[in-house]
Amino acid sequence: MIDAQLELQGAINAAVRGSAVMDGLIGKRIYDQVPADETGRVPDSLFPYVSFGPMTSGDDSDGCHSLVAVSVQLDCWSRAVGWPEVKRIASALVKLLDAKIEVPGFTITIHEVERVLSTREADRRTSRVAIHLRYRLAPRA
């Protein structure tokens, strides 16, 4: 099941990095570990960006099909004033991932946006949109 997480993460990463729309919004700044200074602070120059949040997976097989369910959280981050920038990034990301992406070794049988949560961080200057996605993947023979 962890293979499904890794392959899905790679496919999402490739889709974002290969998108001209996303490149115009965040450049190539998609991270699974956001670069930070020695105090843990993310420099202003890294914003805006997208990061991978928690991922979970589990067996979702039925009597006929071998399936893996994978949930992934993608976080969109901005320090621009207000909501527009981060919500444009989130909207473009959802549209991009709504298209069929190729996951090596798997076929996507179902994918859906479970929820989208917009929050302002405690520093009162950082905005975040958390996108929660769920995929059902069938291993290819």
What tags apply to this protein structure?
3 helices; STM4215-like; 5 strands; alpha+beta; 141 residues; 5-stranded mixed sheet; 27% helix
Question: Any overview of this molecule?
Answer:
The protein has 141 residues and is α+β, with helices and mostly antiparallel strands. 27% of the residues lie in helices and 37% in strands. The chain is elongated and about 50 Å long.
- Low-confidence blocks of residues: none
The whole-number mean of residue pLDDT values reads 95
Radius of gyration: 16 Å
Query: Termini distance?
Result: 15 Å
Question: Can you count the beta strands?
Answer: 5
**CATH top level class name:** Alpha Beta
Shape: elongated
Q: What number of domains?
A: 1
Largest sheet: 5 strands, mixed
Q: What portion of residues belong to β-strands?
A: 35-45%
Q: Kindly state the percentage of residues in helix.
A: 25-40%
The CATH architecture designation is 2-Layer Sandwich
| Alpha-beta content class | alpha+beta
Given the structure, what is the number of helices? 3
Order of secondary-structure elements: HHEEEHEE
Largest sheet, order of strands side by side? 1-2-3-5-4
Would you tell me which CATH topology applies?
STM4215-like
Please give a quick description of this structure:
The protein has 141 residues and is α+β, with helices and mostly antiparallel strands. It is 27% helix and 37% strand. The chain has one domain (2-139): 2-Layer Sandwich (STM4215-like).
Write the layout of secondary structure elements.
Layout lengths: L1 H16 L2 H7 L3 E2 L17 E11 L8 E11 L5 H15 L7 E15 L6 E13 L2
Parallel strand pairs: 1-2
Antiparallel strand pairs: 2-3, 3-5, 4-5
